[in-house]
Amino acid sequence: MRKKNTFMKYLLLVFAGTVVGALVFSNVEFNVALNGSSFSNSPRFASAKNSIESYPIQSLQSFNEAFVQIAESATPSVVTIFTEKTVNQQMVSPFSFFGTPFDDFFGMPKRGLPNGRKEVQRGLGSGVIVTDDGYILTNNHVIDGADVVYIRTFDNRKIAAKVIGKDPKTDLAVIKVNAKGFKPILIGDSDKLRVGEWVIAIGSPLGENLARTVTQGIVSAKGRANVGLADYEDFIQTDAAINPGNSGGALVNINGDLVGINTAIASRTGGFEGIGFAVPSNMAKAVLISLINSGKVTRGYLGITIQDIDENLAKAMNLKMGEGVLVGTVVDGSPAAKSGVRTGDVILDFNTIKVKSSVELRNAIARETPGTIVKMRVQREGSVRLVSLRLEAQPSKEVASATPAEREKVTAALGFNAEELTAALAERLNLKQGAGRVIITAIDPSSNAYTSGLRSGDIILSINRQSVSSFSQYSAIVKTIKAGNMLFLLVERGGNRIYFAFNV
Predict the structure, then answer these.
(1) CA-CA distance, 286 to 23, in Å (whole number)?
(2) What share of the chain is helix, strand, coil (3-state, %, to 5)?
(3) Known catalytic residue: 171?
């Protein structure tokens, strides 16, 4: 009898432990925090932390073994992505029928079909499994426009995939496969990543036969922007070898945690030259959750264009370099306009965090949810004020970017020529005519004006803080400028307002 009671006690303890464990782990799986917020019924991210970073290094053999463990931990979470797109072949060169010996190797589309026939273009990339139910992070350019998407897993399964959502502004996308037996990778905190840390890149460079290639390097830099790859850039730069086909693959730290999605390389030859870029995992995770929950990414919108303060602008406006960003255009009816923000204001702080660059501020605004109330410290003509405003949803079409006009040879002392924007000139340049508007019609490519960024087609709004309301006023101001003087211009370009400062 005693033995029976003892057995029942043990059975009850085991049952109780199982129930408590299930409750704890279900809470871990279904309440994943992102930037302090909790998402109920969110994707089932991996939660079990790796312990590779604590692996003891006592010899060259143990050092080697540490990297082996990192690769073995992360590689099963990386897949090869294949895409197919059917297009109409419109125009073919006779030489297209022969192709090149590198087409298959680089995953290039098949070519060489007669006019009017359909052609299947095939692409190849990489992806990272981030949930145990089959959600996969990759690059938008890997799957964009594809009619068919499928993956090949670590255990050589070929599975059809569905596109869940795309975000071209970060070049990220999410696809989903309906299958089981996946090992999701643990998503790390990219904000904690430091320059000089060891990282490993995993992907399928150059072709399917090289699937899940592992390369090693360090974090070369963080916060890389103005690379020209996406609208929102905050790239991790690495010298881990990345080649065509690696796009969408994993960048992991020494613990095997995902810290970035490999996106592109900087190369003169198209091959590896030691400069690769990855989207940080924190940015990728935010996009991932938005795409899974709603199929799109909604970003905060302030309604301004901003620019960094360079040395010349700092001198012209009596500002300090590296402190704040300069406001150019303020969109009518936008949150910024409603709160009184003006062209020429300098934004010093955003939500109590000092603003050091325009890219940093732009990303910070975009990360906020529409409807969020934010606070900014703004400097205007030497005085500082606190502005509080409610962000709105970013419109589908933002303020247009500038397109430089053709350069012309001039000999003007200022480095550029300007004319009144007449009705005929406005029609020829496809611009809106306005009384008294003055437009730059030619600029010397070797001048300080051109070097500072001024371009033909820019409309001059003010010179040295004096508004330009007519060509005669412009001429009168220009006559007072002497060689060596600092010229401080506010111009309009493609609907945006931009400041320039340079010595004539």
Answers:
(1) 26
(2) 25, 35, 45
(3) yes
Overall average pLDDT of the 338-360 stretch: 88
Residue 294 marked in a binding site: no
Would you state the structure tokens that stand for residue 294, as one six-digit string? 């709603």
Q: Is 171 annotated as a binding residue?
A: yes
Q: Which residue has the higher pLDDT, 467 or 220?
A: 220
What is the structure's pLDDT at 47? 60
247 assigned ligand-binding residue: yes
For residues 430 and 284, which has the higher predicted lDDT (pLDDT)? 284
457 carries a ligand binding annotation: no
Would you say 244 and 205 are in contact if contact means Cβ atoms under 8 Å apart?
yes
Handedness of CA 218, 220, 223, 229 (dihedral sign): negative
Q: Which pLDDT score, from 0 to 100, does residue 467 have?
A: 81
Report how far residue 224's alpha carbon sits from residue 235's, in angstroms, rounded to the nearest whole number.
Answer: 5
Query: Containing H/E element for 5?
Result: helix 2-30
Query: Which domains does the chain show, CATH number per domain?
Result: 71-294 (2.40.10.120), 300-393 (2.30.42.10), 416-503 (2.30.42.10)
pLDDT of residue 271: 59
Here the tokens at position 263 are: 């996106």
> Active site residue: 42, 247, 358, 456, which one?
247
Which of 167, 171, 239, 458 is catalytic? The answer is 171
Q: Of 384, 473, 487, whose CA–CA distance to 435 is shortest?
A: 473
- Measured CA to CA in angstroms, residue 263 lies from 52, 62, 230, 237 at distances of 26, 32, 10, 10
CA trace torsion 482, 488, 492, 494 (10° rounding): 100
271 is in an annotated binding site: no
State the Cα–Cα distance between residues 217 and 206, nearest whole angstrom. Answer: 19
Say which residue the tokens 């992991």 belong to.
252
- Among candidate residues 73, 77, 126, 141, the one labeled active-site is 141
Q: Summarize the confidence of residues 53-71 as an average pLDDT.
A: 73
- 42 catalytic, yes or no? no
Listed in sequence order, the residues at least 6 apart from 460 whose beta carbon sits closer than 8 Å to its beta carbon are 418, 438, 439, 440, 468, 474, 489, 490, 491
Q: Using alpha carbons, select from 359, 134, 126, 131 the residue that is nearest to residue 247.
A: 126
Residue 141 among the catalytic residues? yes
SS3 at position 358:
helix
Q: How does pLDDT run across 176-187, given as a tens digit for each residue?
A: 999 888 889 999
Q: Tell me the HSE value of 26 on the side-chain side, using a 13 A CA sphere.
A: 7
Worst-scoring range by mean pLDDT, 111-120, 264-273, 304-313, 461-470? 111-120
Alpha-carbon separation of residue 23 from 13, 17, 19, 133, 476 (angstroms): 15, 10, 6, 19, 78
Cβ atoms 312, 486 nearer than 8 A: yes
Task: Summarize the confidence of residues 244-257 as an average pLDDT.
Answer: 85
Amino acid at 101: P
